[in-house]
Amino acid sequence: MTNRIAQLIDKFQPPFFNIPIDKKEMQQVVKRLYHIMYPISSQQNIESIHTELRSIADILLHAIAQLTTDEKAQSIVEQFFEDLPNMQRRLTKDANCYLANDPAAKSLEEVILAYPGFFALSVHRIAHKLNELDVPLIPRLFSEYAHSKVGIDIHPAAKIGKNLFLDHATGIVIGETTVVGDNVKIYQGVTLGALFLEKKLSSTKRHPTVEDNVVIYAGATILGGDTVIGRNSTIGGGAWVTKSVIPYSLVYNKIDVKIKTVKDFEEPNNYVI
């Protein structure tokens, strides 16, 4: 290494952020919680599950206390574990929704082990509970872990109803102030986003509301905090929606599809100059 390179390195001064929690440790926590919800293993028993939960509780207590206070962390973790059985029951119903809706799904175990949409929804329900309890940073780390694993970006503050079915799911974006009702189906590449990205709008509702029993097909984009998709509506693939639609609507792009045969088609003369 030359002296010049050494001098340039010595001049580098990165900003130092005081982050009192370990990102990788938080990722392991949400991963462990997911597997505890669905202990598909011949090695599992209730005692080992309780031991694992105690370990996770200790980690969460320490991490949340670093971000708030010991007293508040104790209250948050108590409330989280008090609600854990309800969360597990809700997610079991969500998993059965996948089994009922997808003809390719052969078992509940397959949904739990292999469906990215269900994984993202499960992590969201865990993160959302912590977000409701005003835990800083950690809910976002949980949601970004799911995002990194399966390519589905759901903000932990988004409100999601019962039996959300995310089919194929990769590329779905659900923004912070989105409200999704019950029995909604969303296919890959859908965005529920904001019309404007301005910091001053951070405390306003920027993302759409999707009412019960709506189906949103692949590649659709729905934007705006005032945009409401009425119940029992269908949004076609590739649609761009920035205004509300009434219940029982069918929204689609009119595309003129042309089909012709290529059999015995003669190529035109090609000239290269």
What do these coordinates show?
Helices cover 42% and strands 12% of the residues. It has 273 residues and is α/β, with parallel strands linked by helices. It has two domains: 19-151, serine acetyltransferase, domain 1, CATH 1.10.3130.10; 158-253, Hexapeptide repeat proteins (UDP N-Acetylglucosamine Acyltransferase, domain 1, 3 Solenoid), CATH 2.160.10.10. A five-stranded parallel sheet has the order 1-4-7-10-13. Strands 3-6-9-12-14 form a five-stranded parallel sheet. The model has no long low-confidence stretch (mean pLDDT 91).
Briefly say what this structure is:
The chain has helices at 3-11, 23-37, 46-67, 70-101, 108-114, 116-132, 138-150; strands at residues 153-154, 159-160, 165-167, 173-174, 179-180, 185-187, 191-193, 209-210, 215-216, 221-223, 228-229, 234-235, 240-241, 250-251. The protein is an alpha/beta fold and 273 residues long.
CATH class of the largest domain: Mainly Alpha
The rounded Rg comes to: 24 Å
Structural class: alpha/beta
Q: What portion of residues belong to β-strands?
A: 5-15%
